[in-house]
Design brief:
It comes from Luteibacter sahnii. The chain is 17% helix and 37% strand. By secondary structure, the chain is of the alpha+beta class.
């Protein structure tokens, strides 16, 4: 009996892991895994490294030849979705994209993941406070839908008790 249980545990774990979607962007050999707050403190350490960052869109600004998206960063899950509910944020960054970005496609409060290259920092403000924003030249971006954010999370729960469904 113990051998059957021991064989079923890895199979059950594998089934749960298989439910999670794969990452959307592939890391390069130049990709660093540090939060924007750390890059803002010591930008010279990271030069032109590649990053895969995500978070909540704060605002979109369009200029003559490019657009900038200010993002409150959150850690990413294994599928590179921002874990906004699990954290208070890991700093802010500015995602710079060529051309015009339609703000309705990148709504304030929406969740986004970007892949790109660090391109220095810029001094700015968050409210009345001075802030240093890492700049990311974006190669790829993805705005997450509510369905994508909830997809891949198994609806499995364990417990003992009595429940009432209305």
């Amino acid at each position: 009996m113990r051998h059957i249980v021991r064989a079923l545990i890895p199979a059950a774990l594998l089934a749960l892991v298989a439910c999670a979607p794969a990452p959307i962007y592939k890391a390069t050999p130049n990709t660093v895994s540090v939060p924007p707050s750390q890059v803002a403190r010591t930008p010279e350490r990271y030069g032109n490294a590649d990053v895969i960052w995500g978070g909540r869109i704060v605002q979109v600004r369009n200029f003559a030849d490019h657009s900038e998206i200010e993002v409150l960063a959150y850690p990413l899950d294994a599928s590179q979705r921002p874990k906004a509910a699990d954290d208070t944020g890991a700093g802010r960054f500015i995602a710079s994209m060529p051309g015009y970005v339609e703000s309705l496609d990148y709504p304030n409060g929406g969740l986004i993941t970007v892949a790109g290259r660090l391109n220095g920092t810029r001094a700015g403000n968050v409210g009345q406070a001075s802030y240093t924003f890492p700049l990311v030249s974006v190669n790829q971006s993805h705005v997450w839908t509510a369905k994508e954010m909830s997809g891949g999370h198994p609806n499995v729960s364990f417990g003992v008790g009595v429940g009432v469904i209305r």
